[in-house]
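> example.struct
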């Protein structure tokens, strides 16, 4: 016999199943939108799939991962608010199952003068390189599949 809680929760969970949504967007604020655009667009090579300016005091950029189905959004507000600092475990992980593509991505970020930082979690050692974006949020270039 199902509990009353299960009877309430099961319909909600089935409505939230991955079958019922078509896109995923992860969004976060920044006070350095131009620098973020350079880092994620030029340095990492992610395609810009959308942007907006002056939308009720917000500007923003969306980067495809690698397309419109999964994407990162960065927003900047005017006036610029104080933003929370990231932890060393706030990670965006980009998986490169092909050694050639991993090496190309790693050489690209190094060529722009970015240097790897020590990962907080030892799991990432010897499998990847960790870098910080202009806001201090970490991006992991992972060699291999999840």
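> example.seq
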């Amino acid at each position: 016999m199902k509990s009353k809680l299960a009877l309430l929760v099961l319909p909600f969970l089935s409505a939230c199943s991955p079958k019922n949504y078509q896109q995923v967007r992860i969004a976060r604020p920044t006070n350095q939108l131009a620098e973020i655009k350079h880092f994620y667009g030029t340095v990492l090579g992610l395609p810009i799939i959308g942007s907006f300016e002056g939308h009720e005091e917000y500007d923003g950029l969306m980067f495809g991962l690698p397309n419109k189905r999964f994407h990162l959004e960065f927003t900047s507000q005017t006036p610029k608010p104080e933003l929370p600092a990231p932890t060393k475990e706030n990670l965006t992980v980009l998986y490169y199952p092909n050694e050639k593509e991993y090496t190309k991505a790693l050489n690209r970020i190094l060529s722009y003068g970015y240097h790897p930082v020590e990962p907080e979690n030892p799991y990432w050692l010897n499998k990847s390189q960790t870098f910080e974006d202009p806001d201090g949020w970490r991006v992991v270039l992972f060699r291999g599949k999840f």
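> remarks
The chain has three helices and seven strands.
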